[in-house]
Amino acid sequence: MAAATVNKSAHEFDKGNLDSMLTRRFFFAPAFEIYGGVAGLYDYGPTGSALQANVLNEWRRHYIIEEDMLELDTTIMTLSEVLKTSGHVEKFADWMVKDSKNGEIYRADHLVEAVLEARLKGDKEARGIKLDEVVEEDDKKKKKKKVKSTAVKLEDSEVAEYESILAQIDNYTGPQLGELVRKFNITNPTTGNELTEPVEFNLMFESNIGPTGHIKGFLRPETAQGHFVNFARLLEFNNGKVPFASAQIGRSFRNEIAPRQGLLRVREFTMAEIEHYVDPLDKRHARFNEVKDVVLTLLAKDIQVQGRTDTVQMTVGDAVGQGIVDNETLGYFLGRTQLFLTKIGIDPKRLRCRQHMANEMAHYAADCWDFEIQSSYGWIECVGCADRSAYDLTVHSVRTKQPLRVQQRLETPRVVEKLDVQFDAKAFGMKFKKDAATIRNTITGLDEERLQCLKDELDKAGVSGVKCADGKVYEVTPDLVKINPITVTEHMRDFTPNVIEPSFGIGRILYSLLEHSYWAREQDKARGVLSFPVNVAPIKVLIVSISNDPKLTEIVYELTRKLRKLGIASRVDDSSVSIGKKYARNDELGTPFGITVDFATVQNGTVTIRERDTTSQYIGKIDDVLSTVDELVKGNVDWAGAAGKLEVYSGVQDVAE
Ligand SMILES: Nc1ncnc2c1ncn2[C@@H]1O[C@H](COP(=O)(O)OP(=O)(O)OP(=O)(O)O)[C@@H](O)[C@H]1O
């Protein structure tokens, strides 16, 4: 018999109810709350932690196990030299503006966005349309900074201009944001005071390693550098071959200027990152066929620069085939990520892939797409998928002089023209003395293009400057260095792999999942239901007993023992409230199944099982019900399929229904 279905979309989303339920049922809460809290730091409670652990388990299964990735767990405290080399010390910054009188700080792009959105909202109000307020939290969480809207009608051309700016708000540089602040007379929304020009604020938390204070470190802002600095070992572990991927789940820290929107912009969060190393001349993926028919919702960069946000539905195969997504490997990860997010319960209708615009993308990146998930806060980046080219491995290799490169035996040897460098060792040593080795290494380390430039200059001008890592420039002449073309037969190829990086913000995904799973029954709007897929639900089975009779309590104990043995998380609700209330309370935790023990259980060994979304109930022998639950939890059957094996229960219905 088919199980009843429920139309969740018919119920209106109530954010206030969801927020109070998440706090009441301790999914997560502000850290140090009894001390007043600090913006951007959160603690996860029992349900939030279990939900996160289950999502991460799915992630490990979906990527690490399924794709045979090499898992890492690298240190969080990172040597400053590593982050200098990667560019984070200089560039990992956001733009902030200050109130010119009281020094209050805003993140520049967020402020421009909030003010323009508030003006558009005011325009809508003036036209009789109502929307929510835009809110930022201040640092001590004592007050909310509100950008209030006033019902003022805008010119149609202004509306179009604001919408166009908002569609590409991530694309502005600091000076451009400054121009927007001036052009649109944006002031501090709380005081009305003028704002300073945007200045950069580095987002990393700095620290010292050891007591001397000489070794500088930072809490890592991403896990990626831990992969790159271990590349040589990983390559060796993989028998010297690419492609392969490393993966890591761990904490990252960013001293956000303005934490806001709950878990969406915090200062400490869990990331799950993959670095897939690939031959730059061959970015095909061996398993591309498995995802080529996955449909993505794409928002390409050329649409955004026109100030538009319309999307197209396209298969991964077509997106790569038409050159919209740069290469197969990047397309492969977009497809796999779409599958992962929907598998854990993200609504595909509220999921899109947005391509980075030119200013948004790092200069070295070949292509970059964000998975954005829509929630009550709008479209939020939750996973970034970037082709980072050879940048990371090259900069670490140059800085450390370690060859972070792949040596690949060629199937058929090839004849190539190369530039050969010969030094007059004696004359070179006499001229440069202790610097001779450094200059020689710098010249032999030049790539073919730079070597050709040096040769051209020596041929033409008879002298050329060579800049070494110490910043000094040394003049060399053709009598000291001879560069000549030669023909060689190569048996090996030597290259720096390119890196394709999918980077997941787990907190953002969790929060989006909570919103997408939340609804309320028509009969009991104050109590919500979280319709998590079984695989991520924090607790899989609620066990309740109709009475405190010791015979029933004994069976409850037996049931929990058997579920534990199956590895299934269960929870007994032995409070004194009605069974219907117990069900309703556990709907709030997203528990998909409820098993009820009653006097029939004592007599003939049967229990009832109830499904959370449909509230339909079935009856069966204990072991049949448990094996059904086991199959459901393993994902081998769905409720409609599983219920067919049991009998419909026609007893008393839930109070909550
Ligand atoms: N402050 C934060 N709080 C929670 N998650 C974050 C935060 N910053 C980044 N993330 C998550 O980490 C992922 C990878 O980080 P990435 O550096 O690509 O983000 P980002 O582009 O800096 O994000 P944003 O532009 O929103 O600040 C993001 O997709 C997001 O899910």
From TrEMBL:
Keywords: Aminoacyl-tRNA synthetase, ATP-binding, Cytoplasm, Ligase, Nucleotide-binding, Protein biosynthesis, Transferase
Record-level GO cellular component terms: mitochondrion
Known catalytic reactions: 2 ATP + H(+) = P(1),P(4)-bis(5'-adenosyl) tetraphosphate + diphosphate
Membrane-spanning segments: none
Any one GO molecular-function label of the UniProt entry: ATP binding
PROSITE patterns: AA_TRNA_LIGASE_II
GO biological process: mitochondrial glycyl-tRNA aminoacylation
UniProt KW Hydrolase keyword: no
Domain of life: Eukaryota
Family named by the database record: Belongs to the class-II aminoacyl-tRNA synthetase family.
Subunit structure as annotated in this protein's UniProt entry: Homodimer.
Entry protein name: glycine--tRNA ligase
Organism listed in the record: Apiotrichum porosum
Lineage of origin: Eukaryota, Fungi, Dikarya, Basidiomycota, Agaricomycotina
